[in-house]
Write a structure and sequence with these properties.
mainly alpha
Length: 226
């Protein structure tokens, strides 16, 4: 079962890596945009589920694991929560396009709360261990979780603000799959040192400006429509 889940995890990872970019090139709301978007989303859900299973399996059955291996399993569980939370947020803002502030759906508050709690716990654990990756990388989750809760609490300032939130959620979710490839795939293909912490932050450094670019672009469009 462990090998089977690894196989599914790898297949879902490559699928997500490919389909992450496709919706950007199709007309928003069109058939191909939705199809490629759903393939990416379900791939990310599969990655999240298999990551949690594989990490818990290692924690529960590997009696000889080191502290570094245990902390890495904990970190992968956080990455799974990050992926699930961002993808779910990207979907939920579409479902509640007419959101007008003080959103009352408990599920949409639970998801960012789970992300915030897990990110904080992993970050604190990282500082205790003196591990830079565990200490600083979860701050991304803290920032995103707070921004999600603020969106559900406040009334949208833009008529189609949900477009920006959807884009932010999905591209933030993409950070997880690109990070996984850069850290686990690139070292094997190009002979890089996978322990280099810059590898973990490189996708964030690249994708965050992309998120900002599209957010500003659609914000200008929304303001013209008002």
């Amino acid at each position: 079962m462990f090998s089977f889940f690894i196989f599914i995890h790898v297949i879902a990872g490559f699928t997500a890596l490919i389909f992450l970019w496709m919706p950007l090139f199709f007309r928003k709301g069109g058939a191909w945009h939705r199809i490629t978007g759903w393939i990416f989303t379900y791939s990310m859900f599969t990655i999240s589920a298999t990551s949690v299973y594989l990490s818990l399996y290692r924690i529960g059955f590997d009696e000889n694991q080191t502290t570094a291996q245990f902390s890495f399993s904990i970190f992968l569980i956080f990455i799974a929560i990050l992926s699930f939370s961002t993808a779910t947020y990207g979907l939920r803002v579409l479902r509640f396009k007419k959101h007008a502030g003080k959103h009352r759906q408990a599920f949409d508050w639970f998801i960012p709360f789970l992300l915030f709690t897990s990110a904080t716990a992993v970050s604190v654990y990282g500082f205790i261990l003196g591990d830079s990756l565990l200490s600083w990388f979860p701050l991304i989750g803290i920032f995103l979780s707070i921004s999600y809760m603020l969106y559900w609490w406040r009334s949208p300032k833009l008529k189609k603000g949900w477009v920006i939130e959807h884009l932010t959620g999905m591209l933030s979710c993409g950070i997880s799959t690109v990070t996984a490839f850069v850290v686990f795939g690139a070292p094997r293909f190009f002979g890089l040192n996978e322990s280099t912490i810059l590898l973990w932050f490189a996708p964030t450094i690249v994708l965050v400006p992309l998120i900002i670019y599209f957010s500003v672009k659609y914000k200008k469009k929304s303001m013209k429509m008002v």
